[in-house]
Structure formats: C-alpha cells, structure tokens
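Hi F.,

I've been meaning to write this up properly since the lab meeting, where we talked about keeping a consistent format for the predictions we share between groups. The idea is simple: the sequence comes first, exactly as it goes in, then the structure tokens exactly as they come out, then a line or two of notes. No screenshots and no reformatting. I'm using this chain as the first example so we have something concrete to point to.
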Amino acid sequence: MAEHGRASAAAEEKRHRDAMLRHATGVGRLLERRGDLAGVVAMADLIHESTRWAA
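Output, unedited:
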C-alpha cells in the first residue's frame, strides 16, 4: 500500500513540474509577442528572462 502512495506522489509531482514548465513557457512566449506587457508584472519578466537565458 505504501508503495502505491509513493508512486502516486511521484506522478503528482511530475504533473506539477510539467504544468509549471508549460506555464512558464507560455508566459515567455506571450511576452515575446506582446512587448507592451514587459515591465507590467515583475514575475512575468523574471520568467521571461529565465526561459530566454535557459534556451
């Protein structure tokens, strides 16, 4: 039973990481298309810069 719990927790953690990556990528793409949004939300700018430098 505990084995199943660990597998479920690991799967949930992977889904969470994948969702965060999709979100960060989407924000980066949005800021590439919409330059007028730059500087409006500090977290969005941080994500954009980090994804740009990670590429």
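Notes:
The chain has a mean pLDDT of 79.
Helices lie at 2-33, 42-54.

If this format works for you, I'll send the rest the same way.

G.
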